[in-house]
Amino acid sequence: MSAKSELRQIEHIALDGERLHTVFLPGAGTPLLLCNDFVANLEILDEFAGALGRPVLCFDLPGVGTSAEVTTMRRMPALARLLTGLLDHFGLSQPVDVMGIGWGGLLAQQFAHSHRDRVRRLVLAATASGQLMFPGRLASLVRLARPSALSRVAPDGEQARTVFGGRRNDECGEIASAMSRASAPTRRGYAAQIYALTGFSSLPWLHRLNVPTLVIAGDDDSIVPTVNARVMALLLPQARLEIVRGGGHWFVLERTDEVVRLLDEFLEAKVAISAADQNSTF
Fold this sequence. Notes:
Layout: H1 3-6, E1 9-15, E2 18-25, E3 32-35, H2 46-51, E4 56-60, H3 76-89, E5 96-101, H4 103-114, E6 119-125, H5 138-143, H6 150-153, H7 157-164, H8 169-179, H9 187-197, E7 213-218, H10 226-235, E8 239-244, H11 251-254, H12 256-267
Parallel strand pairs: 3-4, 3-5, 5-6, 6-7, 7-8
Antiparallel strand pairs: 1-2, 2-4
Helix pairs in contact: 3-4, 7-8
């Protein structure tokens, strides 16, 4: 465990009738709000969050990890309002950077759309635009269609590679190691994330989301095919597209050093992305 991890601040916070498990890791620079993937508890991202030199705020949605059971079913805009309360609790009144992974990328898009004044820069990893996305491999999606712990889906590197993609078993072993810390969501927590996704699509307003955005995708992602990232990068006014060669859906765990480098280059850049800088061609 890094010195940064040892200094982390763990709290259970009451927000609008819900009680969320949160972890705040110290660091220098603009804080990063990290929105996790579908029913993934924050412990899965321990190594990734610890590798970032900046302050990182992680949270579990209701019914996930050690957050309390869901009290109210919410659509994406209502979940985004919860995040404003989370930032207020930690005294983060200035715009923060926001990163969404997978399902969390949908929430990150909604947050940036609904609360543009709270977002400095946006990172979308292994994600899509919502229900109108290009679908992933059916066999992989079926494996994830049960409200069980991700540790059962990816108990070893070979299974992680089969379900999530990724070209190297040794790198996929890093996924399995992280997934060993996964806990099963409650049935209501699982249903709540499905409910939030139902009917959601950012396609109607992505072209108006005028925030510097880094879109990252793995070219061997079995859950969210790379074409989804290319579509988003084409629509977003200030987007840069980066492809992780040989990376699967959880490339943030497979290629942590590479992803951290990409994040640092983007988040620390002095000049915002312009349309001419886009690397988003098919």
